[in-house]
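idk why but the lab printer keeps eating my pages so im just putting this in chat instead. protein + iron/sulfur cluster:
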Amino acid sequence: MSLYSKNLKVLMIEPAIQKPTFDRAKPNGNLGPAYIIGALRKSGIEADYLDATVGQEGRDLKKTFYNYEELENGLIRVGMDLKEYYEIFAKYDIVATSSIFSAQTRMHFEIAKIAKEVSRKTGKKILTISGGVNARALREHFLTNGFDIVALGDGERTIVQVVEQFSKEKPDFSKVERIAFKENGKTIITSAVKRKATKWLDDHVPHPAIDAFPLDTYQKLSIPHAGYIPPGTRIAPIMTARGCQDACTFCHISKDKQERELYGDIGYLKLFSEERVAQDVIRAEKLGVTRLYFEDDNLFFNKKRLYKLAPYLQRSGMSYSDANGANLRFMVNKEDGKYKVDEDFIKMLSGFGLDELLLPFETRSNEMLQKYATGKYDPEKMMPYEIVKTVKRHNIDARSNFLIGFRDESWDSILSTKEFAKNLFKEGIDQAGFAIPVPYPGTLDFDYQMEKSDVRKDFNDNVLKYTDYMHPLLPPLFPTKVSGDRLVKACRDFWEELNTSDYVSHADKHQLSITGY
Ligand code: B12
Ligand code: SF4
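predcted complex ->
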């Protein structure tokens, strides 16, 4: 029974997606929404999940995932027809979205617009709320495009407090932690009560409700967010820690840390206990999942912890992928002033079932790494070739992603990254993708671009014209030393030249994207 007087029903919806013609469509199934639903259900609140790219479990995918619509902006919309949203939203009191990809901003605005239309037509109050890095960075835009509330930090407590207030006759959202909302045309930002600092997430973060995902449909589609899996593999995401010790300027962590007052400790390292991770693995196993994708911002930051986790992760029939990347400097140790690959660590990873690893070398340029990536890795000293060889020796599929075209990066520097990638292939790397760093809202790189008042004004006046094209393989939206067209061409050319012809020619068949995702 619901604890809340009005038995409010929440819909957590992940939108249809828009993509350039050359990109591949992938279903959603992100962990943020799973945690939000987990928190709601734990508090006795009815909450459903809908991934609009695939629709409800059992749907005819021709009407959802294979439903392609050409949009006026030149992009392709993939997913359920907009018309379907009306009837669905009418059944709920709260429509929530999680906006982590800026390129999908338009898709979130269409949800909020329809929810408000349904509310007007039916006379039923429907509250719209969004959260996630893009929503918080673009909160003013979300609040003027149909959203009543934007969550600014971790959402597990926030969403329950929102429901609590909304179920009251006179809701007072100023009592909800870390949100932005409008009152009399003014944006109100709330803070949070001071709590004892803790690095543990177990107490206030319930299990993610991956059981709310359409797992059968995901299994049928067999399109993971990265890499290739045999058809019919049942997959799900998992997280063992949140936050990161670095602060790359192209990453949300950089801004999250700077805005600690506003967002809380969302960018800082926090972890789940070993027992808690074990429970998440067993829960997935009970749902028939056989392959888990680590979605940690940084899985390797505490190697001792991973050694302790390994026995809990190792389950017969369960394999793991870390397609999201992990900081490479943890794969080497310094002994007598010299770096050495930590083979025991890599062996341990392989031992618990990790068979796919994205190695985010990012760039060959130490200058770029220092300037944009807090010097997180030194390709000259930290044995990149030995890392690849060792990873391969332990039967882990090794892929890598490279960033080319930082705003002040020269063509020579880009070529040295390409050479570096070529040499990594010689050592056994399986695949590589090239992408242009996009200054996404919610990063320090975005703030840098917004320092110019004319650029900021243009962005704010035409937000969707920018976000629609925030794709790492489209021409950069802000000036770069090497021309945008040249960068776009280089990403494609390098990918085609360095990956095996077999891989390139099969990329379509296997639904692989050229960024490596
Ligand atoms: C895992 C991940 C991926 C996975 C996605 C797999 C999956 N579907 O689960 C993979 C590896 C495929 C991926 C790919 C890409 N990714 Co990615 N990814 C992430 C990452 C590291 C974690 C997302 C996650 O699961 N978080 C865990 C949950 C628990 O945290 P959360 O989403 O923040 O949610 C919490 C709060 O924000 C809040 N909240 C969130 N939503 C809501 C909603 C409500 C209502 C409320 C109240 C609260 C709330 O509460 C939640 C729980 O506490 C994020 C960084 C990040 N931490 O967000 C980048 C991130 C989302 N990715 C990013 C990028 C750029 C990409 C790529 C474009 C990379 C590339 N070069 O190709 C691709 C694009 C893929 C695509 N779909 O188009 C950027 C997006 C930037 C932007 N503004 O658009 C991010 C932010 C990283 C960065 N660089 O800053 N990614
Ligand atoms: S190391 Fe990765 S997660 Fe950490 S700040 Fe850099 S890009 Fe973000």
